Amino acid sequence: MDMQDQNQNILSGLRLVEGLFAQGRFVEVRQVGKQVLDTAGPVTESGWHFLVHQIIHAAEKELERQATVPAKKLNIAVVAVATGKYFRFVDPLVSSLRANFLTSHDVKIFVFSDTYKSTSDDVHVQKVSRKGFPGDTLYRYHYFASMYDVLRGFDYIFYLDADMSVCDVVGDEVIPSYGRTLVGVAHPGFFCMQNYLGTPETRSESVAFLPATQSRYCYWAGGFNGGRADAFLDMCVALARAVDEDARRGTTAVWHDESHLNRYFSAHAGAVMTLTPAYCYPEGTNLHLPMKRKIMALKKDHAEVRSL
Fold first, then answer.
1. How far apart are CA 16 and CA 10, in angstroms?
2. pLDDT tens per residue across span 11-67
3. Fewer Cβ atoms within 10 Å of its own Cβ: the N or the C terminal residue of the chain?
4. What is the pLDDT of residues 82-101, one digit of tens each?
5. Residues whose CB is less than 8 angstroms from the CB of residue 17 and which lie 6 or more positions away in sequence, other chains included
6. CA distance linking residue 210 with residue 212, whole number of Å
């Protein structure tokens, strides 16, 4: 069976599994989904098989939730960076988080900004200095690590870009389970593409360097990630050190913090639960991704919002 036939088989199976999930037939989703994956064979250059895995995971989470009553109420921290003109995105982001993000749990929002001010009890503003681009994005993990003692008191921590909107209900499916402690999102620009491994750092002089022989199954987007508080903070400390080492070497990773994130996730792949691009879905895209958007990356004029 050639690659095209494999892709077609798994696409047909995907539609069947989606239909079962929509009807709430979660046990059948698990059974049929695994049959689809077994019969499709190894589809190493497609994102469709990955999506079937995610639907099976969501069904298993729902079965787990139904079997666990009452569910534990968790303390969740959400962190975001909004320096310079990005402050304008914070209020809409906060509103969308309150409406749709892990609403059955206690959520506290931490905004790292030089300009944003808040009067809400659930939004804490941590003052940081603006560094310009790419410093404002590159040093995000330094900011989070600087709040280590505060953030470690939460059960889970999630990062979202300030220019994101939680446009649909996001529930416990984003909380890592089955031995995983971190959460990442497959990059929408490379999902279901031939170059599904994306554009990692290829220069060996950067700590973010990923050799071509490194085993991995996707390229992760930098706009949404998280995990158990201890695991997420350990990652923040490691990424901050990696950025500092690059600075000492006089280099900057090609895609800044995202390059370092991909290096870390690749090295700790067994700890990472990877979500579909539904959780980092670009607004106004022509990608036609086969999933309902949950968290949307808002369309913007990059040059304008990065300008001083």
1. 10
2. 666 777 777 777 676 777 887 777 777 765 554 445 667 778 888 888 888 777 666
3. C
4. 998 877 889 999 999 999 99
5. 29, 32, 33, 36, 52, 55, 56
6. 6
Tokens describing residue 276: 């579909």
∠ CA 299-114-208, nearest 5°, is 65
CATH number at 75-306: 3.90.550.10
- Asked whether the whole model's pTM tops 0.85, one would answer no
What average pLDDT score do residues 249-263 get?
93
**How distant, in Å, are the alpha carbons of 162, 167, 202 from that of 276?**
20, 15, 25
Give the pLDDT mean for 181-206: 81
What is the band of 193 on the pLDDT scale with cuts at 50, 70, 90? low
Asked whether 134 and 52 are in contact (CB, 8 A), the reply is no
Sign of CA dihedral 260, 209, 244, 250: negative
**Distance of alpha carbon 252 from alpha carbon 205, whole angstroms:** 9
Q: Which two tokens stand for residue 142?
A: 């330094």
Where along the chain do its domains lie?
Answer: 3-67, 75-306
Residue 132, sorted as left (phi over 0), alpha (psi -120 to 50) or beta, turns out to be: left
The residue type at 268: H
